[in-house]
Amino acid sequence: MLLIRSENAALEKAEQALVARRQADAARLRTLSIAVIIGALLASAILAALVTRAARIHAAELVDQNETLIRERENREKAETMLRQAQKMEALGQLTGGVAHDFNNMLAIIVGSMDMMLRRLPDGDERLRTLAENALSGANRAAALTKRLLAFSRLQPLDPKPTDINKCVSDMSEMMRRSIGEHIVVETVLAGGLWRAFIDCPQLESALLNLAVNARDAMGDNGRLTIETSNAFLDKAYAAQHDEVESGQYVLVAVTDTGAGMTPDVLAKAFDPFFTTKRVGEGTGLGLSQVHGFLKQSRGHIKLYSEIGVGTTVKLYLPRDTANRELPADIEHRPASTDDRTHPVRTAATDGLLGDLASYLPRKASTPS
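Structure tokens predicted for histidine kinase:
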């Protein structure tokens, strides 16, 4: 009996030990499973973070590459637009230059003949004299127009010299005030230590007067016109983005008005000859094109900035005068008929008429008045 009880107790202990081991194994298995799951979750999170980071880096690289491509495309389109504009301006320059040169020759005949006629008219015939004077005045206005066309086409001979731009602007300021009226305030801001420019001062004065008149028309009844001078430098990057611009030092003349401003479409055509937003009879459309031609011929640069309702600024970059400068061949001061490469050949009929007119001059000189 005691033996049986002893065996039962042993069996119970063994069974309890087995149950305890199973419970311990189950607990360890649960702990291991939880650890594996947590590890897998951590690994997944780390992998997801790495993938996300790599995706962001790749996306940023793609964005940068796309922006680079967009900039290259815009630069290419801008360069193509500038090339087309340069070709158009060159063609217009050749056309207007040829026409203006031929008109100059014909106008020389008209002006000379009318002048001789006025000198020979008998006293007392005031009606005929008035008609002749009106005809001569109209011919002179036409000659002034062809002069502006020649300036646009770069066929007008220039006489560039070392020039004090501050003095040039100061001398012009009073004439500007008289030309544009007292209702427009003219202000000059002249920089100290300004470099000298290598420029044709009378032509620069004409350009400034053109800009002042344009500004007056844009401002209307009242406004402010500011002319400011300063030293400037155009770097190679800027020169590469603009046609026929040389990098280097310039004397800057900025003409700013408080007018209505120009839209981008008008701004793009501002230098085109005969383009104008004024009513018929109020402008020829040659003001800015003449200034543009003068700056190009002088190896300078012109830049327009405009904002609707704010005003317009025209920046004239004049080449700085340097020591031992060689006079460029295309701006040497020479008679207009001496270079067959740039000026149209006169027709035989025109030469004959000029010869006929010249034949009167010795006779007139020897005829008592």
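Confidence is low (pLDDT under 50) at residues 324-350, 362-369.
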